[in-house]
Specification:
This protein has 193 residues and is of the alpha+beta class. Helices cover 13% and strands 32% of the residues. Strands 2, 3, 4, 5, 6, 7 and 8 form a 7-stranded mixed β-sheet that branches. A hairpin with a 3-residue loop joins β5 (53-62) and β6. The radius of gyration is 30 Å and the shape is rod-shaped. The N and C termini lie far apart (88 Å).
């Protein structure tokens, strides 16, 4: 929904002018444009890079209550795989459908977005759509092996990566006995001889 506290910038590609539609039901306008992505469009591990292109393909329809906006916004997302820290990149299509009511309309504040004069702002819709569709734990691929917990090696690049099994320090005295007995230690042989 549009924020009444932030003035709309006509130069933003996400702010659309509805003046051509008039205030009568039945007017329609198709908008196909490219805008710049705003900052902070995502979550900590993945999001839309600021300034990257946002492809808009939307239809503005004048209805009795205001302007109905329907269409799709396409964005590129980038981030890090949560298992191997490799780069993750993909494109997302965000469905947009929102009624922007005319100023003075009796719609409740939380029910609909509001036009500011003849302008409407798609940024809040885009922000909500992107954040809700982003994966909470992005992966570079479904079968990502991640990183070795001991040395940090990427297990996708070295699938047969291993480390010598470390001995629990509590058993170190037994290892010393085994070394004295030429590699084998049999408890029963101590009592049979």
């Amino acid at each position: 929904m549009s924020s009444p506290h932030r003035p709309l910038d006509r130069r933003s590609g996400l702010v659309l002018d509805t003046r051509e539609l008039g205030r009568r039901a039945g007017g329609m306008k198709v908008v196909q444009a490219t805008a710049e992505a705003p900052a902070d469009l995502g979550i900590a591990v993945i999001g839309v890079p600021p300034g990257s292109p946002v492809e808009l393909d939307v239809r503005l329809e004048s209805v009795v209550e205001g302007v109905l906006v329907t269409g799709i916004a396409t964005v590129e997302v980038r981030g890090e795989c949560v298992r191997c820290l490799g780069e993750v990149s993909d494109s997302m299509e965000i469905d947009i459908q929102e009624l922007f009511v005319y100023p003075g309309n009796e719609a409740e504040e939380d029910e609909a977005s509001r036009l500011e004069g003849d302008l409407l702002d798609l940024e809040p819709l885009l922000r909500d759509g992107v954040v809700l569709d982003l994966p909470f734990r992005p992966l570079c691929r479904e079968d990502c092996e991640g990183l070795c917990v001991e040395c940090g090696a990427n297990l996708n690049l070295v699938p047969d990566h291993t480390h010598e099994a470390s001995l629990d320090p509590r058993w170190e005295k037994l290892r010393d006995l085994e070394d004295e007995a030429d590699g084998t230690y049999d408890v029963q042989s101590q009592f049979q001889g």
